[in-house]
Design goal:
The complex is a heterodimer of chains A (306) and B (272). Chain A is an all-alpha fold. Chain A has one domain: MetI-like fold (Orthogonal Bundle), CATH 1.10.3720. In chain A, 76% of the residues lie in helices and 1% in strands. Chain A is built from 14 helices and two strands, in the order αββααααααααααααα. In chain A, a hairpin with a 6-residue loop joins strand 1 and strand 2. In chain A, helix 3 crosses helix 14, helix 5 packs antiparallel against helix 8 and helix 6 packs across helix 8. The radius of gyration of chain A is 25 Å and the shape is globular. The model of chain A has no long low-confidence stretch (mean pLDDT 85). Chain B is globular and about 70 Å long. The mean pLDDT of chain B is 87. The relative contact order of chain B is 0.13. Chain B has one domain: MetI-like fold (Orthogonal Bundle). With 272 residues, chain B is mainly α. Classes of the chains: A mainly alpha (306), B mainly alpha (272). Chains A and B meet through helix 1, helix 4, helix 5, helix 6 and helix 7 of A and helix 1, helix 3, helix 4, helix 5 and helix 6 of B.
Chain lengths: 306, 272
């Protein structure tokens, strides 16, 4: 009786989150795939075919016959979409590399700080991550806009003449700044945990044997921090590709990013089938880095365990 | 390495933190600016905060957001904790791979896709969009974050305490509430806080899944930001930053205090 109850309890613990994710994560995604194969229609919902259980099996078969890959063909015909995908990948890649260059010295400094400072430093890195994304992006608008703070400061220092203004807002440069700024904690944290674990005596040994500190860094420190570098880069790159808020608020009309294109397709053009097709392709593009990331994490765990 | 921090390390930390914090500090400072311009300082004033509280639309949105965040974080914490227990304790079962995939995928899923797919679901089943659709959407992605946080605590958990209770005839459900839950509680609480702030912050998913009468604060801020930078928005942002900072600092102080207490208790137990 008790064992029976245990099994029932166990099943309940599994089933509740399982069903929730099935209904609200997996099924919605299948619906996206289905609608990406449908056609736009002037109705509500604005696509055909729509399934209806009343029509039974024949209706279902009929609906399947109406499926087409037209939306995907459309994505290849209009080069806006291909350019958006490529430029998203490029912007995410460049931002990831900048974030690595900015984040590495911070993580290194933190890992070498006296140990009683480290918890505070760690909290200071995590704190901005808790603050709203939108707020942090908004903060940069006031700084970067033509009549903004950066212009005022540069004019006061004399680097800009009074009639000149900085032109950063609404360019890709502003998008890079925004992504690096927003995702920097994601880069610093894994780098820090890799660098902090490192055995300092290795470096001492290298220096005692006459190795130049800079060389010691490249031969010892950097190779040992590679798991952190890999994790940090993926954690910045993957979300940056699908980013919407940053390119929308900081970028200009020439800034093409796929998240923005999907948003416009959905909210402005109201073309649900095409935006679904854009979403499916975006996910396919991201699956390669996501799987690579999970493999890398698994390898790191195994190395730690072994 | 007992040479103390080098100049390079100190300056990289200082510059790094300046980069992380200056934009936020500037935003906070200009929320107290007398002038409407957010770049020229014209004297201290709190008038934008007063303006804020008279702005009914903004206040309504703040109330909706608080309710959505509270309800969704609470349900997400329960579901996320169950998911973490399933992943850590239940070993192999039918469909485990799919389950762990579904727990981790939302963490890296672009928000535009999560939002779009949930909206299409709600349309397909003819579910009226509004408060509850936003809540459901927020539960779905934040429960996965809760699961990860709780899972990391469960992994380091000494199962012999649970086994001892069960050997002494304590039923599993009671064991969970009496033994397991108190031990993982800090992780559950930080999971709740994470879910709460994720919900508070979300613009993209809420924009897709919302309906009439359920405009959240980020949506309101977003539509005003598109029109330009104003001191009122700076004031809203400052309040939000203050709330989050107080929450996070308090939580970390509590955790630190608990750890100190635990160590003291352990030391006392060892001395007998």
């Amino acid at each position: 009786m008790a064992a029976h109850q245990d099994r029932a309890g166990r099943r309940l613990v599994i089933l509740v989150p399982y069903l929730w994710l099935l209904v609200f994560f997996l099924v919605p995604f299948l619906i996206v795939v289905k609608i990406s194969l449908s056609q736009i229609a002037i109705s509500m919902p604005p696509y055909i075919p729509t399934f209806s259980l009343a029509e039974g099996w024949a209706g279902l078969v009929d609906a399947f016959r109406q499926f087409s890959f037209d939306n995907y063909l459309w994505l290849t015909e209009d080069d806006l979409y291909i350019r958006s995908y490529l430029s998203s990948l490029w912007i995410a890649l460049v931002s990831t590399l900048i974030a690595l260059l900015v984040g590495y010295p911070i993580a290194y400094g933190m890992a070498r700080a006296p140990s009683h400072w480290r918890p505070t430093l760690l909290m200071l890195v995590i704190l901005p991550f808790w603050t709203s994304f939108l707020i942090r992006v908004y903060a940069w608008i006031g700084i970067l806009k033509p009549e903004g703070l950066l212009t005022v400061i540069l004019q006061t220092v004399g680097l800009l003449s009074p009639d000149e203004q900085v032109r950063i807002l609404n360019t890709n440069t502003a998008v890079y700044i925004g992504i690096v700024y927003s995702y920097l904690p994601f880069m610093v944290l894994p780098l820090y945990s890799a660098l902090e674990k490192m055995d300092g005596s290795l470096l001492e040994a290298a220096e005692d044997l006459g190795c130049h500190p800079l060389k010691a860094f490249w031969v010892i420190t950097f190779p040992l921090s590679i798991p952190g570098v890999v994790a940090g880069c993926f954690l910045v790159f993957i979300p940056a590709v699908g980013e919407f808020v940053i390119p929308d608020l900081l970028g200009g009309s020439q800034t093409l990013m796929i998240g923005k294109t999907l948003w416009a397709e959905f909210f402005s053009n109201r073309d649900w089938p095409v935006s679904s097709a854009v979403a499916v392709i975006l996910l396919l593009v991201l699956i390669v880095p996501i799987v690579a990331f999970q493999r890398a994490q698994q390898r790191a765990h195994e190395r730690e365990a072994g | 390495m007992n040479r103390g921090p080098s100049w390079f390390n100190i300056s990289s930390i200082v510059l790094g933190f300046a980069f992380l914090y200056l934009p936020i500090v500037i935003l906070v400072i200009f929320s107290f600016n007398e002038s409407r311009l957010v770049t020229v300082w014209a004297g201290f004033s709190t008038k934008w905060y007063g303006e804020l509280f008279r702005n009914q639309g903004l206040m309504d949105a703040a109330w909706v957001t608080a309710r959505v965040a509270f309800v969704s974080a609470s349900i997400a914490t329960v579901l996320g904790t169950l998911a973490a227990i399933t992943l850590v304790r239940f070993g192999r079962f039918h469909g485990r791979t799919l389950f762990s995939g579904m727990v981790y995928a939302p963490l890296v899923m672009p928000e535009v896709i999560t939002g779009l797919s949930l909206l299409l679901l709600f349309v397909a089943i003819n579910f009226d969009r509004g408060f509850w659709t936003v809540v459901i959407a927020h539960i779905t992605f934040s429960m996965c974050f809760v699961a990860v946080v709780v899972q990391s605590r469960l992994v380091t958990f000494d199962t012999s305490v649970e086994e001892a209770a069960m050997d002494l005839g304590c039923p599993p459900a009671k064991t969970f509430f009496v033994i397991t839950l108190p031990i993982i509680l800090p992780a559950v609480i930080s999971g709740w806080m994470l879910a709460f702030t994720l919900s508070l912050d979300d613009l993209v998913i809420a924009s897709f899944t919302t309906g009439p009468g359920a405009t959240t604060l980020p949506m309101k801020i977003y539509s005003q930001v598109r029109l330009g930078v104003t001191p009122e928005i700076n004031a809203v942002c400052t309040i939000l930053i203050a709330l989050v900072t107080i929450g996070v600092v308090t939580a970390s102080l509590i955790t630190k205090h608990q750890e100190v207490e635990r160590k003291r208790a352990e030391a006392a137990a060892v001395q007998g």
